[in-house]
TrEMBL record, chain A:
Record-given protein name: Dynein light chain roadblock
One Gene Ontology cellular component: cytoplasmic dynein complex
Keywords noted in UniProt: Cytoplasm, Cytoskeleton, Dynein, Microtubule, Motor protein, Transport
GO biological process, one term: microtubule-based movement
Gene3D superfamilies: Dynein light chain 2a, cytoplasmic
Recorded superkingdom: Eukaryota
Entry function: Acts as one of several non-catalytic accessory components of the cytoplasmic dynein 1 complex that are thought to be involved in linking dynein to cargos and to adapter proteins that regulate dynein function. Cytoplasmic dynein 1 acts as a motor for the intracellular retrograde motility of vesicles and organelles along microtubules.
Family: Belongs to the GAMAD family.
Automatic annotation (TrEMBL), chain B:
A Gene Ontology term for the protein's cellular component: outer dynein arm
A molecular-function term among this protein's GO annotations: dynein heavy chain binding
Repeat keyword on record: yes
GO biological process terms, semicolon-separated: cilium movement; outer dynein arm assembly
Keywords: Cell projection, Cilium, Cytoplasm, Cytoskeleton, Dynein, Microtubule, Motor protein, Repeat, WD repeat
Compartments where found: Cytoplasm, Cytoskeleton, Cilium axoneme
Family the entry assigns: Belongs to the dynein intermediate chain family.
Protein's UniProt name: Dynein axonemal intermediate chain 2
Comp. bias (Basic and acidic residues): 520-534
Compositional bias segments (type: Acidic residues): 578-595
Gene: DNAI2
Pfam families from the UniProt entry: WD40
Highest taxon of source: Eukaryota
């Protein structure tokens, strides 16, 4: 339990990180540092996107699997680390 | 059936009746090949002939049916919660979350994902992978492409009886919509079946107008309110003014009463800059310019009669065809009249006589368009008769620059919103001219034939790239201008302002010279009168000046004559006697030749 806390705190403390969300397989946000409405939005949308990305990768090569998803936009970067049951989402503002 | 007309012709005038008979075929001409003629030709061997062996193909065009599309959206709500957990209740959700967090799998997963995420975050912070290494400077405007314009879209009048597209107005935000006023300006030409409607078109759907505007009389002009994009004001053929709200439907929200409005078609109506955003003014050929507040259209706020003698007499008034108003100079306005005179006015003058500040005359016919240069508001463009003229406010006698006389009538014109030296004009032969007077002064930079019927109106979008032209048959063509004609060139502002100043100075000098000459003539006649009266009056300074000038010139002439006489005398002393200079010179040459 404590390690989880420590890990998430460490991630949040990195330079430029705006928010962290942990989502389970049903799309329910377990842990979040953002406000509720944004969390729900991110959770719902990114969950679907990750599923789609994963299925795409597997369609092309069934042996392959999605390890990481990065969406870079004008304002910030959304990073998604998928797992079978959970999803770790971090929104960072890459300092240039 | 009644007999309408009876034709009578005598039988013996008919002539002999035709009798047809069969005849066998006979050969009329039989020409045999003449061997002698063959001598005129030379046999050629070998000959090059091109032969193509390809499969036959035919070209077909197909236009598919319009595909109707609809866009829908989904609203995300929180979901996925198991049945026993109510997402609204904080306690239950917190309990659920705590339960999940205690799961061992959760801990492992987070540790693993966490390290992965850590790596990527650090990567991001370490280096910017999208860094541009060699930022190239954009070669500004020195593109080699020749100026061009291409048609993007054509919007046709859906009615069977076509009316002229007399006025165009772009939607104030983002310019995705175009309001077009349709009417028939030909005197008494409008038939009973002609529809009075005007349309608002969406640029993406050229087949069907987005909205219909139903006035009680055809609209000649239609303008969007720059402050509120739902309000439109239109001037009607019968002299009324009406305003519409696009949220409220096709019928006007309010109309002016016929008695207090204009008595002739309202040719132009422009919104004014005011706090409430409800003021506008309109001009019509009945000689009046009226100011309105759309909240109370029952009577005009202010009236001004376009009488140049400043007496406010309606009979002497000039008909107003075009209006001009610049939001940065809210009290000044300009009116272009049917008689070819531009009247500049100041709304805030104390008496109605002072409202008309000055006039500029120079056109032979109605001034169809009047617009100030967006970069240099002291210079304005007028389009009328067969020329377009550029004026400076200071030189009232004549325009500072003008185009040559074209073959067809010019109907509308406007400045480019992005380049101070570029303006556009449309003509009755259906062509659009783009003028860039820093590039070429005597001819348009680009002459484009938009359509076969005369073009009546022109409107440039705010970004300076898209132009809408309205034609006589109601076709509005949307053109895109090449980037060279709408991006500001290097140094263009300075060059344009230098050119304006130079031309203004030239006109001023010419004006001063004219004034001088007129003054001299006036004083000459005045001095003659003085001599007749034989009164020794106090000489006015101008007379003193002219007298001094005359004396000065006389002195010079006398001196010159003396010198010539002196020269003549010296020549005479050399050779011959003679009085006239001509003879002298002639004789001199002879002398030289002899020598």
């Amino acid at each position: 339990m404590a390690e989880v806390e420590e890990t998430l705190k460490r991630i949040q403390a990195h330079k430029g990180v705006i928010g962290t969300i942990v989502v389970n397989a049903e799309g329910i946000p377990i842990r979040t540092t953002l406000d509720n409405s944004s969390t729900v939005q991110y959770a719902g949308l990114l969950h679907q996107l990750t599923m789609k990305a994963k299925s795409t990768v597997r369609d092309i090569d069934p042996q392959n699997d999605l390890t990481f998803l990065r969406i870079r936009s004008k304002k910030h970067e959304i990073m998604v680390a998928p797992d079978k049951e959970y999803l770790l989402i971090v929104i960072q503002n890459p300092c240039e | 059936m009644e007999i309408v007309y009876v034709y009578v012709k005598k039988r013996n005038e008919f002539g002999r009746q035709c009798s047809f008979s069969d005849r066998a075929a006979e050969v009329n001409v039989d020409i045999h090949p003449d061997a002698v003629q063959a001598m005129n030709f030379i046999e050629r061997d070998p000959i090059d002939i091109a032969v193509q062996c390809a499969s036959d193909m035919s070209e077909h065009e197909v236009n598919t049916e319009r595909f109707e599309m609809e866009t829908r959206g989904i609203n995300h709500m929180e979901g996925g919660w198991p049945k026993d957990v109510n997402p609204q209740e904080m306690e239950q959700t917190i309990r659920f979350r705590k339960k999940v967090e205690k799961d061992e799998n959760y801990i492992n997963v987070i540790m693993q994902l966490g390290s992965l995420m850590d790596h990527c975050i650090k990567q991001n912070n370490a280096i910017n992978i999208y860094e541009e290494y060699f930022e190239e400077e954009e070669a500004a405007g020195v593109t080699d492409e020749p100026p061009s314009a291409k048609t993007i879209n054509v919007f046709r009048d859906p009615n069977t009886i076509k009316r002229t597209a007399t006025h165009l107005s772009w939607h104030p935000d983002r310019s995705r919509k175009l309001a077009v006023a349709y009417s028939s300006l030909e005197f008494q030409r409008s038939s009973k079946d002609m529809s009075y409607d005007s349309y608002i078109w969406d640029l993406e759907t050229p087949n069907k107008p987005e909205m219909v505007i139903r006035p009680s009389s055809p609209l000649i002009c239609l303008e969007y309110n720059p402050k509120d994009s739902h309000i439109l004001i239109g001037g009607c053929y019968n002299g009324q003014i009406a305003y519409w709200d696009t949220r409220k439907g096709a019928l006007p929200v309010e109309l002016t009463v016929v008695e207090l409005g204009h008595r002739d078609p309202v040719y132009n109506v422009i919104w004014l800059q005011s706090k409430t955003g409800t003021d506008c003014f309109s001009g019509s050929t009945d000689g009046q310019v009226l100011w309105w507040d759309i909240r109370k259209l029952s009577e005009p706020v202010e009236t001004l009669v376009m009488d140049i003698s400043r007496k406010g007499v309606l009979e002497n008034a000039l008909g107003a065809i075009s209006l001009e108003y610049e939001p940065t100079m809210p009290t000044k306005f300009m009116v272009g009249t049917e008689q070819g005179v531009v009247i500049s006015g100041n709304r805030k003058a104390k008496t109605p006589a002072e409202k008309i500040v000055c006039t500029y005359s120079g056109h032979h016919g109605p001034i169809y368009s009047l617009s100030r240069n967006p970069f240099y508001p002291k210079n304005f463009l007028t389009v009328g008769d067969w020329t377009a003229r550029i004026w400076a406010e200071e030189s009232k006698e004549s325009s500072i620059m003008w185009t040559k006389y074209h073959m067809s009538y010019l109907t509308d014109g406007c400045w480019s919103t992005t380049r101070p030296a570029v303006f556009f004009t449309t003509k009755m032969d259906g062509t659009l001219d783009v003028w860039d007077f820093l590039f070429k002064q005597n001819n348009p930079t680009l002459n484009l034939k938009v359509c076969d019927d005369p073009l009546f109106s022109l409107r440039l979008q705010d970004n300076g790239r898209f132009i809408g032209c309205g034609s006589k048959l109601g076709t509005v063509t949307l053109l895109e201008v090449s980037s060279g004609l709408c991006t500001l060139q290097r140094n263009e502002k300075n060059l344009a302002s230098a050119m304006f100043e130079r031309e203004t100075k030239r006109e001023k000098i010419l004006e001063a010279r004219h004034r001088e000459m007129r003054l001299k003539e006036r004083t000459k006649t005045e001095s003659k009168e003085e001599a007749v009266k034989e009164e020794v009056e106090e000489e006015k300074p101008e007379e003193v000046l002219s007298r001094v000038e005359k004396e000065f010139f006389e002195v010079i002439e006398n001196e010159l004559k003396r010198r010539e006489r002196g020269r003549a005398k010296s020549v005479v002393s050399q050779g011959r006697e003679g009085d006239e200079d001509d003879d002298e010179e002639f004789v001199l040459k002879e002398d030289e030749e002899e020598e």
